Amino acid sequence: MKSLLSVxxxxxxxxxxxxxxxSAMRDALDRGDLAERTLAGRCVAxxxxxxxxxxxxxxxxxxxxxxxxxxxxxxxTASTAKGESLRxxxxxxxxxxxxxxxxxxxxxxxxxAVADWTGRPVINAGDGVAEHPTQALLDAxxxxxxxxxxxxxxxxxxxxxxxxxxxGSLIHALPTLGAQLTLVGPKAWMPEDSPVEIITDLxxxxxxxxxxxxxxxxxxxxxxxxxxxxxxFGLHEIRAARMRPGAMVMHAGPMNRGVEIAEEVAESxxxxxxxxxxNGVPTRMVVLDLLGRGxx
Length: 296
Ligand code: CP
What we know:
Largest sheet: 5 strands, parallel
Bound molecules: phosphoric acid mono(formamide)ester
Low-confidence stretches: none
CATH superfamily of the largest domain: Aspartate/ornithine carbamoyltransferase
Number of helices: 11
CATH architecture of the largest domain: 3-Layer(aba) Sandwich
Mean pLDDT: 96
Structural class: alpha/beta
């Protein structure tokens, strides 16, 4: 693998290898083992043109744990703020010695463009409404570790599907790993063509699922929060009480508490949200290591 731009090119065995590797890395981190410094002498550049907490910091830490030098571009203080084009900015970062570029941008396809411009390995850290591949991978790691496998799980992805790049990657990755995925939400936020089942009534399926995966309402991309949405699709305590014994709640974060997820549910033993975050570093270590092995 030269770059990780999408999960769509990954088959079941590719995904399983990444998930298994990341889970083993998580065990190693939990034991306090030091990772092999496979990126020593290499430079990882974080280019985040949209806000991020968990993805940017976990890529930063993952790269450091593999021994890389890490540089981070802040678009607000970079020469982009003086009008430098995206292409010139990216070529500058490449010219100063970045070996692997981690890119988040609000336009679909920018990570692919960065790969084309630079010829360097690129990781898509979220492009517009399209994809967020490492989020789907760390979510699969979280499911694997909690349930012992992803195959056969019934998972509802709930909410603002059309505006969600997390959903864009989950829709491919989880069924490829054998999960039975259902999209749940207002019709207006559902794709016109979907390879998986679409439902517009959360209450009709909440008691059947192994996992309720709540999506953040993406107000920056056109999602609108209103009382009707919260009433029909928010996972509040009464609705969560109808979930099966052992069923779990996931959310990629950041959470709109009181909107798609109630405070009490986010803090309940059903919530895997902190585990998702914790699996971010080992998952990104495995991806960076893989790309580093292919990079010249
Ligand atoms: N899940 C996720 O992408 O979070 P950040 O926007 O904080 O990186």
